[in-house]
Amino acid sequence: MEQYATFYSGEALYGISILAVREINPHLEITEVPLAAPYINGLVNLRGQVVTVIDLGEKLGIEKRETGRKTHLIIIKTNAELSDIARGMGIKTSDDPVGLLVGQIGDVAAAEASDIEPPPANMEIKDTRNVRGVVKLEDSLLTLLNLDQILGLDPEQGPREE
Description:
Layout: E1 2-9, E2 12-17, E3 21-26, E4 40-46, E5 49-55, H1 56-60, E6 72-76, H2 84-88, E7 98-102, E8 105-111, E9 131-136, E10 141-145, H3 147-150
Parallel strand pairs: 2-10, 5-7
Antiparallel strand pairs: 1-2, 1-8, 3-6, 4-5, 6-7, 9-10
């Protein structure tokens, strides 16, 4: 059974493998980067380490995140920080520190691989390559995100957007 860190964007519930999460922080001061891709919100200094911040809503094409009291940064483990277990499960991230700017944080959800279904055709996310699948929970639908695609690591997607 795999566990997922969950968060909201609007009313929708999203999740990523908890094995890929280093930490979750309340909103930090973000420094803008001129001429960056629209989904790059900027950079943060996290205990002396520069972390690129991706506005997940903008990247997914669902909403540009307005930073505020409920926004959080999910700091993703680098490839060097991932355990052998995570790599064995096919999880890969970035060589550089990355944070995902998200809305309200949810709970940890667990699901068996057999519970994951293909994304429905009427999803709010237009590029379904960003979605691993969906899991029906007791009271909501959890959309599992594909970190490879979101971080621009999928070899079939071509070069990163600039």
